[in-house]
Design a protein that fits this description.
InterPro entries: DC-UbP/UBTD2_N, DC-UbP/UBTD2_N_sf, UBTD1/2. With about 110 residues, the protein is α+β, with helices and mostly antiparallel strands. It is about 35% helix and about 10% strand. The protein has a domain at about 45-100: Ub domain-containing protein, DC-UbP/UBTD2, N-terminal domain (Bacteriocin As-48, Chain A, Up-down Bundle), CATH 1.20.225.20. The model is unreliable at about 5-15 (pLDDT under 50).
């Protein structure tokens, strides 16, 4: 039996995910250009190290809402170093860096009319 003021043990490796801060691309880009940048990143990311299944989980999390993203990273055993997911590690210590453009849209995105 615990103290009246005790709280459940929280895994120190799991941080609560937060929406990335607003950012601006160097020049205004369209949604199609942003999608192309994202696809190029995800296609080449596994070649920089780490495990493919962790990259796949990070992509699924990046493309999901915060609640689902939290569930994905927790179940994959991903250690979130930055709450906006820009820096993560797997259980083996491999580092995964995600650019802001795969996590959110820039403030100067050109919307199709």
């Amino acid at each position: 039996m615990g103290c009246a003021g005790s709280t459940p043990k929280v895994d120190e490796n799991s941080k609560k995910l937060k929406k990335p801060k607003a950012w601006k691309h160097t020049e205004p880009i369209t949604l199609a250009q942003l999608k192309q940048m994202r696809d190029e990143f995800w296609d080449t990311a596994p070649h920089y190290g780490g495990r493919k299944e962790i990259w796949d989980a990070l992509r699924a999390a990046a493309e999901s809402d915060l609640a689902l993203a939290q569930t994905i990273v927790d179940s994959a055993g991903i250690i979130i170093s930055n709450p906006d997911m820009t820096l993560c590690y797997d259980e083996r210590g491999a580092k995964y860096e995600l650019p802001k453009y795969v996590l959110s849209e820039p403030t100067n995105l050109i919307r199709d009319v």
